[in-house]
Design goal:
The protein has 305 residues and is an alpha+beta fold. It contains 5 helices and 9 strands. The strands form 2 sheets. A 5-stranded antiparallel β-sheet has the order 8-7-6-5-9. A 4-stranded antiparallel β-sheet has the order 1-2-3-4, with no helix packed on it.
Length: 305
């Protein structure tokens, strides 16, 4: 009972901390959403006509050295750059997928089994990759961690490795996406390099999705195989909520990675440059361009002494 009371107090503390952090996160998101300077540019000619241009997700503004500024709201969502929209969408989906991955990994309900006896003795057994727990009808639950890594089944060890690798891939994808986004100033203004970094971020998101999907689907396939096996004498489990969260995480990460890869291929007509190659036959001498008569001297022969 002391262990149950300590766990109850720990849950209360974690709930309060989660509530405070969630409130601070929402407040920071609202402040960030209303800030006008998501990206800015300054033109320096002289002290009088120096201007500053800044934008956010909703408007673009211009300010001169006298402090006068004008703002224009974007007239249409479809008029926004497609690359900017896809990059922002990829970042949001990748972040949500990574958060759901962090929720799915410590979730205790990866597989659940209910033992029905009487109202008093009914118990529920549930497991994840790290521990096995049991709860009776009175609400008392006990958990024990798996004692040895080598004593576990091979698929559980593989699922652990895949989920940890998925977290690392997701973090790498988020960092690469933040650096490679065209609207961010992280990493300078080398947009060719930023585009390549964004591609790397998309690849990381797709790898995160693959690792998560393989781990969750592998675990679920073992649950269904044991459940429908008539010769299996052990405890038969059903799919728990942790697996559904994992599938959702993998789907969001996959969509985010695909959006990020597609955003790097989208270019407007102004950004497409046509390069012409003039073939010179092998062995031909190079002839420099001759100046036209309009570029020659306008003086006649009689003008020279």
């Amino acid at each position: 009972m002391r262990v149950g009371a300590a766990e109850g107090r720990m849950k209360d503390v974690l709930q309060v901390v989660g509530l405070v952090l969630g409130f601070l996160g929402c407040l920071s998101a609202l402040v960030t959403l209303h800030i006008s300077t998501w990206k800015e540019s300054s033109d320096f000619d002289n002290v009088i006509i120096t201007s500053r241009i800044f934008e956010n997700l909703w408007m673009t503004c211009a300010e001169d050295s006298t402090g006068v500024y004008n703002c224009w709201y974007f007239q249409s969502l479809l008029a926004l750059p497609v690359q900017l929209v896809l990059e922002a969408l990829a970042l949001v989906l990748g972040f949500l997928g990574w958060v759901l991955l962090g929720v799915s990994l410590p979730n205790r309900y990866w597989r659940v089994s209910t033992v029905d006896g009487s109202v008093i003795t009914t118990s529920t057994i549930y497991e994840n990759l790290w521990m096995s727990c049991a709860t009776d009808s009175t609400g008392v639950h006990n958990c024990r961690e798996f004692p040895s890594l080598l004593a576990l089944s091979g698929y559980i060890q593989a699922c652990r490795a895949l989920m940890i690798a998925s977290i690392v891939m997701g973090m790498s994808g988020l960092i690469s996406t933040l650096v490679g986004m065209q609207c961010s100033k992280i990493g300078g203004e080398n947009y060719v390099l930023k585009g390549r970094i964004a591609v790397v971020g998309g690849v990381f998101f797709i790898l995160q999705s693959l690792c998560t999907m393989i781990a969750v689907s592998w675990y679920a396939s073992n649950i269904t195989r044991e459940f429908y096996d008539p010769l299996y004498d052990g405890t038969k489990y059903e799919i728990g909520e942790g697996l559904y969260i994992g599938w959702s995480s993998g789907t969001l990460a996959l969509i985010g990675g695909c959006c990020l890869l597609c955003s790097c291929k989208v270019k407007s007509k102004e950004e497409k440059v046509l390069y012409l190659h003039h073939h010179t036959p092998r062995g031909a001498a190079f002839t420099p361009p001759t100046a036209s008569r309009s570029q020659c001297s306008q003086y006649g022969r009689n003008a020279y002494v």
